[in-house]
Amino acid sequence: MRCFPRRLKIALYLGAALSSLAVGSQGWAAPATERADQGEILWDTFGVPHVYARTEAGAFYGFGWAQAHSHANIVLRLYGTARGRAAEYWGAKEEDSDRWLLANGVYDRARQWYAWQTPDFRKDMDEFARGINDYAARHPDEIASDVKPVLPVSGVDVIAHALRLMNYVYIAAEQKMLGDPPARKAGGSNAWAIAPSRTTDGHAVLLANPHLPWGTAFFTYYEAQLNGPGFSIYGATQVGLPVLRFAFTRDVAFTNTVNTILGAVRYTLTPDGDGYRLDGRKHAFTTKTLSYKVRQPDGTMATKSFVQEYAVQGPVFRQADGRPFALYVAGLDRPGMIRQYWDMALAHNFDQFQAALKRLQIPMFNIVYADHDGHIMYLDNGILPKHDEGDFTYWNGFVPGDRSSTIPRNIVAYEDLPKVIDPPSGFVQNANDPPWVSTYPRVLYPEAYPAYVAVTGPMSFRAQMSTTMLAGTDRMSFDEIVSRKLNTHALLAQRVLPDLLAAAASDQRRDVKDAVRVLRAWDGADNADSRGALLFETWARLFMGPKFADFGNFATPWSLDDPIHTPAGLKSPAQAVDLLARAAVETRRLYGAIDRPFGEVSRFHLNDVNLPGNGGFGNTGIFRTITWGPMKDGERTPFHGETWVSLVSFSTPMKAKGLLSYGNSSQPGSPHRSDQLSYLSSKTLRDLWLTRDEVEKHVEYIDQLH
Looking at the predicted structure, is the pLDDT value of residue 37 above 90? Predict the structure, then answer.
């Protein structure tokens, strides 16, 4: 991390401020300047890069430079892994990753996808890579020695990383494909689009709120603004991607949540000698000998080879019991994912945005949208194989592979995917739930779609809380919407606590009496000073299982006919009270007391910052999701949850607030590794600086790009 003397910072700031007078200082963003060949990056006081470029390619160059500045070590490790050469760089622990990517032909396909891009977009990919290379060349002391061998990177590397992330992490991750039928429990994200009819100022609002693990490199979020000729785009993306996946402009805004779309199929093969059976006859495997290098502890290289078999459906692997199966991944002939995201951000209205969506290049993710004209939309997006038979459970398991008629020939068309556009309710939402309650009252019905599109339910408590906070006819101010987003109350507590306390009221056990006293005084929220939250969380884990996902102990099961009020009631009040007695004992063991303040043990602790935490497990119906890790050294810290947040209103001027929980840099020594945790702890959001005038008031330093 470079340290700029204060005088230099002031000089750079004054130069930028004076120059802005010449190019205009009003509006969304001033035009790109003429001061450098590629433009410049204004770094604000939260480490957010505001790239100003003369050309589109220049914006990609600046974005590559910025990502190297903030996350060079992560980016290079991701790119080295996507090449299928991680074991060559980092040793034997990476062999499984290399074998998986080689067997699936990821880097070879990335070369093909790169060639299929238009010349201008290939140049954009090349310039993004060149920005990374140039930054590394000029700041070699900031690059970890173990990732330097990955340099230089190329446009192919950029595409290979995106291909690996989307198709072989989200869609067909090794651990998911080689195991039992995947649970398909989406990791956790929230999204709202609120129509002008539901806001006090008559402008649409969009919430982007992805939740992903905090310590997993390819899930790390990065905040940025990209300005160039005809565009000014603000938002966030996952490190290593050259486009913003969660983005807004003065015209459009969109976000993603993980959905359960089945973009991969596992076909169980029937062995026949040295081949397999298909359509009543023997077929020979196609084989390919693949090799990779493994760095040894002494620094020397060993070369390893393996023979990979391929069936008609795809590469062949083995189940845990040794049975062979072939992996089919949809969309490998659709190389435009990165370009589609870029064109979505360049759209100026709903028609242009839909035109980009209709290409169906993005393999999965719900897409939630709002715009300046007041349109809102929910789309259960993805590259979904089209089948003639079977439901979601069938295609999620191991499918018999002895008939070629089960191999997809087409995908489900955009027109046939579940979507909601401008509903009478005035809102759409998603919290990783199936599409059927994307607005309320419902307008989507499972029977109108093939059974393999999505399961019927149940709807999670987090999704029910999301819908409950938006349902109705009241108009909300922007500040009220912010407040609802920051809500830490547990819907599960609202649903069952009155019945639990009533059932426990006459119980004479000391542990139960103590628990009732604490829970009666608790307001149902997971705030830092909450004294009943830890006890209720412990009881809920006993009542609903370790992931709070078992609805079996409710008296009334979940129903799509009443999706935001069920499940409800206690199937066995006596059992629930017994669990409360157990929870009291377990809470004392874990936390020292049943009324320990939540924030004393739940900590936002990164580097030297250690602050009281708030928020809790999404499956207990807490919209402000923090998945807490196990207790260690007297505290627990986030494993997963709140990462990037942005709330934007298409008012004039545009209102935008946001937060990147763990900060906008992972590089050693950066002051921006944990500098936003205070906002997370205080349940507040930052103002996002959109115009050049605003940015220049908060400049930390400037990079001139050549």
Answer: no
Helix (H, G, I), strand (E, B) or coil at 349: coil
- Per the document, the length of the chain is 706
By CB atoms closer than 10 A (0-12, 13-18, 19+), residue 341 is buried
Instruction: Count other Cβ atoms within 10 Å, centred on residue 491.
Output: 23
The residues carrying an active-site annotation are: 189, 211, 642
Q: Could you tell me the CA-to-CA distances from 622 to 214, 566, 676 in Å, in that order?
A: 18, 16, 21
Q: Are 304 and 96 in contact (CB under 8 A)?
A: no
CB 74, CB 217: distance < 8 Å? yes
What is the per-residue pLDDT across 531-563, written as a single tens digit (0 to 9) for each? 999 999 999 999 999 999 999 999 999 999 999
* Cβ atoms of residues 218 and 165 within 8 Å: yes
> CA-to-CA distance for 455 and 304, rounded, in angstroms?
43
Place of tokens 């000391």: 510
Q: Any idea which residue has 């089960």 for tokens? A: 406
What pLDDT does 29 receive? Answer: 44
What integer best gives the mean pLDDT of the chain? 94
CB 130 within 8 A of CB 65: no
Give the separation between CA 598 and CA 601, rounded to whole angstroms: 6
pLDDT tens digits, one per residue of 681-706: 999 999 999 999 999 999 999 999 97
pLDDT of the residue at 182: 53
Q: 43: closest CA among 223, 305, 260, 245?
A: 223
User: DSSP character for 692?
Assistant: H
Q: Is 322 left (phi over 0), alpha (psi -120 to 50) or beta?
A: left
At 369-404, the pLDDT tens digits run: 999 999 999 999 999 999 999 999 999 999 999 999
Average pLDDT over residues 109-128: 98
Nearest CA-CA partner of 107 in 138, 148, 70, 153: 153
pLDDT at 16 over 80: no
The pLDDT assigned to 214 comes to 94
**Locate tokens 């500040």: which residue?**
479
Which residue in 659, 683, 656 sits closest to 206, CA to CA? 656
Q: Residue 682 contacts by C-beta under 8 Å, 6 or more apart in sequence? A: none
Instruction: Count other C-beta atoms under 10 Å from residue 634's C-beta.
Output: 10
Which residue from 576, 584, 571 is spatially nearest to 497, judged by alpha carbons? 576
Q: Determine the average pLDDT of the residues in 257-270.
A: 97
Residue 305 CB-density burial (10 A; 0-12 exposed, 13-18 middle, 19+ buried):
exposed
> Tell me, what's the pLDDT at 187?
53
DSSP conformation letters of 212-275: EESS-GGG-EEEEEEEETTEEEEEEEETT-SS-SEEE-SSEEEEEE------EEEEE--EETTE
Helix axes 119-138, 337-346, angle to 10 degrees: 90
The predicted structure's pLDDT at residue 364: 96
Here the tokens at position 196 are 């002008």
CA distance 280 to 288: 25
The pTM (predicted TM-score) of the whole model is: 0.94
Residue 75 CB contacts under 8 Å (≥ 6 apart), including other chains:
67, 68, 132, 239, 240
> How far is residue 524's CA from residue 459's CA, in Å, rounded to a whole number?
21
